[in-house]
Specification:
Length: about 250
């Protein structure tokens, strides 16, 4: 849409007014973060076991010696051949951050119901370094309300803390946070679903400051977003080659 063209002085006046609103939002976000950390906890009583490249591992072992664990519920069902594009966009941005928060007593792992071999093949294709494990042989995804096999959704599903109509897919995204105390007890402290995941998408923060914004069109991020190895080369930059975890080009 056309934009008003003004003098530098008028632009500064408008920018100062916007800055006041941005500061207000920052303060609201800070208060919300405090409330998030102050939520009551639920003790995890069930013994969940996950399939990993190193063999079966319990939820406690996924903490990797740290006291805090972030689980990303990645949409990759048992019969899927590729991971969800939106989940892939989010996970493209994890490795750079986790090398910092892992030094602040926080572990991070992606969990999906897909077979471990498929998850690891897709992880190599995308060039990711984070851990990704399969919950195919446990109730984990069902208990944390992100998986809904066909035949179970006719009356709607419980997602994002409410009942919603049949989403039409087996898997939905989310984040769950856990704490492990000195005695080994594990507690579920926080979960976020649906658009709550946007706070983990720095790409959106960058797009939100440019004139075209997220440029999503009528079908949300699907208007432009692709898996990072599926973008066409537009000739303005060299298209990156996806690397496997050993540094060779992914096939």
């Amino acid at each position: 849409m056309p934009h008003e063209i003004v003098s530098r002085e008028q632009w500064l006046e408008a920018s100062r007014a916007l800055l006041a609103e941005e500061k207000s939002l920052t303060h609201v976000r800070d208060r919300l973060a405090e409330k998030r950390r102050a939520l009551p906890w639920v003790r995890v009583e069930k013994d969940y076991v996950f399939q990993t490249p190193e063999g079966p591992r319990t939820l406690a072992q996924l903490f990797d010696g740290r006291s805090q664990l972030i689980v990303y519920h990645f949409m990759f069902g048992p019969a899927w051949e590729e991971g969800c594009p939106g989940c892939s966009l989010l996970c493209d941005q994890v490795d750079g951050a986790r090398q910092h928060f892992e030094h602040n007593d926080v572990s991070w792992v992606a969990v999906s119901r897909g077979p471990l071999a498929k998850l690891q093949a897709y992880r190599r294709r995308m060039g990711w370094g984070f851990r990704w494990v399969s919950s195919a042989e446990s109730d984990f995804n069902f208990d944390y309300q992100v998986s809904y096999p066909e035949g179970t959704r006719a009356d709607g599903v419980d997602y994002n803390f409410e009942k919603i109509p049949d989403p039409g897919v087996d898997e939905l995204p989310g984040v769950s946070v856990f704490h492990r105390d000195d005695s080994g007890a594990i507690f579920h402290t926080y979960s976020s679903f649906a658009r709550g995941g946007e706070m983990f998408l720095p790409v959106y923060a960058w797009l939100d400051i440019v004139p075209k914004g997220r440029n999503e069109g009528g079908d949300n991020m699907g208007h432009w977003m692709r898996r990072h190895d599926e973008y066409p080369d537009d000739g303005r930059r060299a298209a990156p080659t996806a690397q496997s975890c050993c540094g060779s080009a992914a096939v």
